[in-house]
Amino acid sequence: MTYQLDFTSLGAYWPQFLAGALTTLQFTLYATALGLVIGIVGAIARGSHVGWLRLVAGIYVEVVRNTPFLIQIFFLFFGLASLGLRMPIFVAAVLAMVINVGAYSTEIVRAGIESVHPSQIEAAESLGLSRFQIYRDIILKPALERVYPSLTSQFTLMMLMSSVTSQVSAEELTGAANNIQSVTFRSMETYLIVGLLYLLLTLLLKAGFWGLGQVLFPRRRRLGTVL
Amino acid sequence: MSVAVKLEDVHKSFGAVEVLKGVSFEVAPGEVVAIIGRSGSGKSTALRCINRLEKVQSGVIEVCERQVNDAKLDLRALRQDVGIVFQSYNLFPHLTIAENIMLAPRRVKHITRAAGRALALEKLAQVGLEEKIDAYPEQLSGGQQQRVAIARSLAMSPRVMLFDEVTSALDPHLTGEVLRVMETLAKGGMTMIVVTHEMGFARRAADRVIYMHMGTVWESGSADILTNPQTPELQDFLANEL
Amino acid sequence: MPTGFNLNYLIYLFQGMGWTVLLSLLAFVFGGLGGFLVMLARISRIEAVRRIANVYIQVVQGVPLLIILFIVYFGLGILGVSMPPLVAAGLALMIYCSAFLGEIWRGSVEAVPRTQTEAAECLALTRWQVLRDVVLPQAIRIATPPTVGFLVQVLKSTSLVSVIGFVELTRAAQVINNTIFQPFAIFGIAGVMYFALCYPLSLWSRILERKLNVGRR
Ligand SMILES: Nc1ncnc2c1ncn2[C@@H]1O[C@H](COP(=O)(O)OP(=O)(O)O)[C@@H](O)[C@H]1O
Ligand SMILES: [Mg+2]
Question: What is the pLDDT of residue C22?
């Protein structure tokens, strides 16, 4: 007997699929916003004149980038629980994602900052801009504009990685799929649907970031080039 | 073979821009033709059409009795008959000089490695660079690299050689050594089409000079047209070149 | 060491680490073969082939590895073939690697100047000879740093196969934690083990990258 794919029994579960997809999106949005903040702070620390600050930021980046996300989640989630610190799964999941993507963002933003030519800063200094103004307008903004494509593709990767949070029972899209397949026994069909939903989320996110880039960086749009 | 290369009313466009607007000329076997003209007049494009690096929209191109525009053209056979040397040498940086030269003969003509090396040595002797046989391209000066590029083309025993401003990227004191190699080649009876800005070379080595202007052959004749140009455009061009 | 953690557990972790390395190598080798085909398809002269390869890449890169893993795992089950988890894990990782390596290598091949291909074609070499003798040797130099960097990605990705019960390093750590519940220590040690595998590769990739940039200047 050959197996017949049968999606009909899954029709009733569309609210769960939808809720899962929305949770994934929610995770992603939070982690993007906070991860960007960490990325900027981390990049500044990485380039700071204070030795220990540079070291701490460096260790953070290397540790996160050279260990699996799943281990990071387990360490955080079960570790904190063993200390008696219980937090909502939602918070734990987003926290793990922020720590993870923050490290990647740090490296990306740093590369952007390093690509700002020193003469730009000298020119700004000679115009009498304050240090804060220089950092914000002459260094950070052009740096972010330049690395925007790398940053957003990192955030898209993170959306895909959020599926791993299902392993600590987060109820995002993969978590929802795990639940649905365990009651319907239609595993293959369930994961095919979820795969498709992730694909749509990826496209949605890419389109969203592209649109946001058009609004945030009108200069890039005008030139039509990567700066 | 009465003509080595023949172009007849060749039209070539890139998108909406027509770059060759009906180019016609013939090159007899053993003849050396210099093509001169302003930058952008279509000289490189004409050369590239001859060994079908570019496809033309209309017109006839015949090279060594082959119809270049024919859909059934054996492209690799054409490329064996026609050697081309570019302004930017384009040696293969990961191969030694010997390997650069023998790569194509070994792959295409299936000669042995030893025969390939002997061939490389022979061709290097022709351009005066035997001692560089085991060097890598980056260890050579621009002039030497360009001579190796010529040797590499010659190793395939082409019947026609095309040169596209081969000395334009070189320091003035290095152009002489390359031009001398080409003049020797010309004296040896090679059929050559040479796009060049070196009026001295054209005068000394060319049997015929073609002046291209705005995608057409504007004026052509013996090297005398360089001293006695008929059209105001060529007069203008020559005045600016000197 | 906290009470409860003993040498046997450590040995168990090291065994898991061995499987992690083995699985990574399998994924890399087979994924590399697949990736080479994907790269060839992406630079094919036939538009349909290029399109199909592109769709393949977009799909694999647009779906979480975890989901690919589940689909392969249950897919093999449906086909009625009862396979050890190693096969499902290896297959899923291979698919994942082939898409990413295919993209990395296509970029490297396209980074070889067009004039090199042209010069080779003008010497009457066939398309395959041009690729093998002229383009690939130069592309390999360009591709090495990102490929080594991707190895780190592969090593980390193998942790996901723990979810289908394959006992590699992460699964081993989980199993131990389930018995003695010392999460900080156990996942900490596992983390250090991953770090010991990944960090040298990261460094190596960075050094290669720097060398390449110097060589090109
Ligand atoms: N691949 C191409 N695509 C579009 N335009 C081209 C291309 N190659 C050449 N051209 C255009 O064709 C014209 C003639 O170029 P070319 O044959 O290189 O002139 P020349 O060698 O005489 O300087 C130029 O205007 C150039 O911009
Ligand atoms: Mg030209």
Answer: 95
